[in-house]
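Changelog note: in this version the structure field was regenerated for every chain. One regenerated record is shown below for reference.
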Amino acid sequence: MRTDVEGMTDLCSINADFSYVPSSCGASSGCCAATKVRTIGKPLWTGLSPRSRTCRTRCATVTSNDDGDVVAEVDIEGTQHWPGA
């Protein structure tokens, strides 16, 4: 997976929200974590990029509104290989 994490986060406001389904919950559980792009989103995306050659992403939808809000529904699948694990 090749991404420009710096470019993605630079496009977001300093307070941009970030919501995701933690892998331990499963998408159908309704479990969701809400935080900020710069505190969790950026480190999460940075950690995903180099650690998995089997990681696959699928962008299901991207929507926006006149206020500048953008919502992307992205599925990330694969096996993570963490150093020392």
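Spot check on this record: Residues 37-51 form the longest helix (15 residues). Residues 5-77 form one domain.
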